[in-house]
Amino acid sequence: MIIAAGELHDEYDVAVIGAGPAGLAASAFCARAGLKCVLFDDQTGPGGQIYRSITSSPLSRHCVLGKDYWRGETIVRDALASDAHYVAGASVWGLLSSNAVAVSVSGITRQIRAARIIIATGAMERPFPIQGWTLPGVMTCGAAQILLKSSALVPEGPTVLAGCGPLLWLLAWQYLNVGVRIDAILDTTAQRNWHRLFRHAVAFATSSYMTEGLRLMYQVRRAVRVVTGIVELGAEGGERVESVLWRTRRGRFERLPCNTLLLHQGVVPNVNLAMSARVEHRWSDTQLCWVPNVDDFGSTTAPAIAVAGDGAGIAGAGAAVACGQIAAIAAIRALTNKASHKDEERNARRMLHRYQRGRTFLDLLYQPAPHFRLPRGETIVCRCEDVTARQVIETTLLGCPGPNQIKAFLRCGMGPCQGRFCGLTITELMAETRGSSCAEVGYFHLRPPAKPIALSEFAGLRSDEAAMKAVVRE
Amino acid sequence: MFRRLNKGPERLLTIFVDGAPTSARPGDSVAAAMLASGRIGCRTTAVSGAVRGPFCLMGVCFECLVTIEGVASLQACMIPVREGMRIETKCGNRTFGT
Questions:
Q1: Is some CB atom of chain B closer than 8 A to the CB atom of A138?
Q2: Terminus of chain B with fewer CB atoms < 10 Å: N or C?
Q3: DSSP readout, A335-358?
Q4: Are B35 and A147 an interchain contact pair (Cβ–Cβ within 8 Å)?
Q5: ipTM of this complex prediction, to 2 decimal places
Q6: What's the pLDDT tens digit per position in A270-329?
Q7: Strand pairing class (A11-17; A37-40)
Q8: What integer pLDDT is reported at residue B20 of this predicted model?
Q9: Residue B97: exposed, middle, or buried by beta-carbon count in 10 A (0-12, 13-18, 19+)?
């Protein structure tokens, strides 16, 4: 049920953060089992990014976005019909001591307590640091799809999509459905990736991803100019993007005028909240990003905190629902001390297995090429603080050992996005320059608040005598 | 540039971007409404002064920071439009006082 922030209780059995497929499934499951559950989400409506605006989309024709999108309707309906308290526009910025959840709604922070916490903060676009990616008019494919889903907005004028990964093809297909002209798709899929795929080909060929994916790509390729083997890519323009420039493997340069350039090279877990709650993470060599260390139930190294869905490693919406249910079952068992829901667990695991099938193939095929993850020269790495690749490389060569030290030298990662759009690039670039591994180089130490909040929100927090004495001297 | 697919008889509302009346669809985020009206720049950066516009539209990149009803540094992609809402672009570097 939807509630306002003022109606929040002080204590819950389970707090779920993120109303995408994993969070919706987890909260509905907990509530059905009789637990007192709260679901926080920072967007204005439920669905996460994959089912974004599903309760309010102005696109009523079901054939535009595809049937996979509308599958989300049942998931959202189940969660909203359950007794779980759902608060929209609620930004969780900290999982503090003694199971306190700090959440900001309309500029006011409240603290609630929850015996168990399920983080379902999902995925975000992987950084795509190319020359000119900061120009207005250059956006992510995810951003363009959000505009389509939530406001029925589509690009007008010369439009180019560049990068690799399923989302790029899905967006192109959705655009074709509504008659949007795409001037070119610049496919950056690394050709060498194909050689590593044989081992995983059977699993992929028998997965649900293949037929759907091939159908999409076939239809798009028939209608749009697709340039493959892109090895260099850049956007040009003054106050906005005016053209895109690329070089192919065969050495051919080309420039195309465009006023919208949509970039995508996969998605990565949005780890900021989990990391700030001291959940241990490791570097994934397959997905080339940080993923939390979780067990079969999504439980982390931090007491009472689980991570479910893409936030625990990219596996897609179907797998996220299953993981949400499994994390919910673990929470229910921990709180009731009973080994309940065995059938449900078996079903969820079967579903998870089905959706995991074929993922390794996709992970390896669409692993972004090194030259699109390791920028050079004046290409901006940290968008917030305008820090370039050259600065990062030179500072690393001075002996700067890791991301936390380079932050002090260059301010990269200290802007409002808190490293979300530069962190992976910084880790990889420093590892490459130092000749060490990403795991050795590590990541920024993230601490609450995981979202920037006004100082007045801290000041407005209820505090005890010890907290007062820590800041007030009389 | 972006255009709306639905040009139906739906009710539009008016917001003010840097004083200019701009029409928006109920349910738009501030960023979506600005993009629909042809404004793709939201702010200038604190370091180089370069123009930036919405990039991720999901609350991650913080490129679409604007001032809304006098409150600075708000994410335009995370806030739904309201009738008569006043939005100022060009944040640049924050200053004390004025």
A1: yes
A2: C
A3: HHTS---HHHHHHHHHHHHHHHTT
A4: yes
A5: 0.95
A6: 999 999 999 999 999 999 999 999 999 999 999 999 999 999 999 999 999 999 999 999
A7: parallel
A8: 96
A9: exposed
The pLDDT of residue B94 is 67
| Mean of pLDDT over chain A | 94
DSSP code of residue B18: T
Q: In the structure encoding, which two tokens stand for residue A336, read together?
A: 């009731």
Q: Nearest to residue A162, comparing CAs of A250, A216, A234?
A: A234
Q: Going from the N-terminus, what domains does chain A have, and what CATH number goes with each?
A: 5-124+268-340 (3.50.50.60), 127-265 (3.50.50.60), 374-441 (1.10.10.1100)
Closest chain B CA to residue A258:
B1
Cα gap A115→A11, rounded to integer Å: 8
DSSP string, A54-84: TTT-S---HHHH-HHHHTHHHHHHHHHHSS-
Half-sphere exposure of A162 (CA within 13 A, CB side): 28
Residues with pLDDT less than 70, chain A: 474
Residue partners of A250: CB distance under 8 A and separation at least 6: A229
B5 with A152: Cβ contact below 8 A: yes
Contact B5 A156 (CB under 8 A): no
Q: How confident is the model over A436-470, as pLDDT tens digits?
A: 999 999 999 999 999 999 888 988 887 778 877 87
* Minimum distance, in Å, between the CA of residue B77 and any CA atom of chain A: 9
What are the structural domain ranges in chain B? Answer: 19-88
Whose CA is closest to A270, among A89, A14, A450, A145? A450
Q: Rounded to an integer, what distance in angstroms lies between the CA atom of residue A92 and that of residue A111?
A: 10
